[in-house]
Amino acid sequence: MSSRTKHQKPHNTQQYRTDDRMDLTTLNLKPLNLLIFPDWNQPEESLYLELEEMMRNLIAHPDRDFLTILIDASETLAKSQLDANLILSAIVMNLFMEKFIY
Predict the structure, then answer these.
(1) Closest among 28, 49, 44, 35 to 76, alpha carbons compared
(2) Per the confidence metrics, is the pTM higher than 0.85?
(3) Distance CA 19, CA 37 (A)
C-alpha cells in the first residue's frame, strides 16, 4: 500500500496526464517535416526578422502542401522574456495582411 494520499503530487515532475500529451496524430506530420529551434534569447527584432524570413520561404516553397513546421518554444519561458506565441502570431498576421493588401 502506498503512503501517498490521493491529493499529493507525484514525485516525478515529468509525469503527464494522458490528455496533456501530444501524439503523432496531433502534429499533422506530412512527407516533409521541419523542426526548428530558434534562439529565444536573441534580441526580439532579430528573432522576428529571422522567423519571418523563414516563414516567407516556406509559404513560397513549391511543396508547401507537403510541409509541416514544428517550432520548439520549450526554452522561452525559462530563459527569455519573449512570448513565442505572440511573436509567431504577429508574423503570421503580417504575412496574411501583405498577401491580401498587395
Answers:
(1) 44
(2) no
(3) 25
pLDDT digits (tens, 9 = 90+) for 50-93: 999 999 999 899 999 999 999 998 876 555 667 888 899 999 99
Return the bridge partners of 67, or none: 32
Is there a contact between 35 and 70 (Cβ–Cβ < 8 Å)?
yes
List all residues 6 or more positions away from 65 whose beta carbon is below 8 Å from its beta carbon. Answer: none
H helix runs in the chain, sequence order: 44-60, 76-79, 84-101
Q: pLDDT per residue over 35-46, tens digit each? A: 999 988 888 899
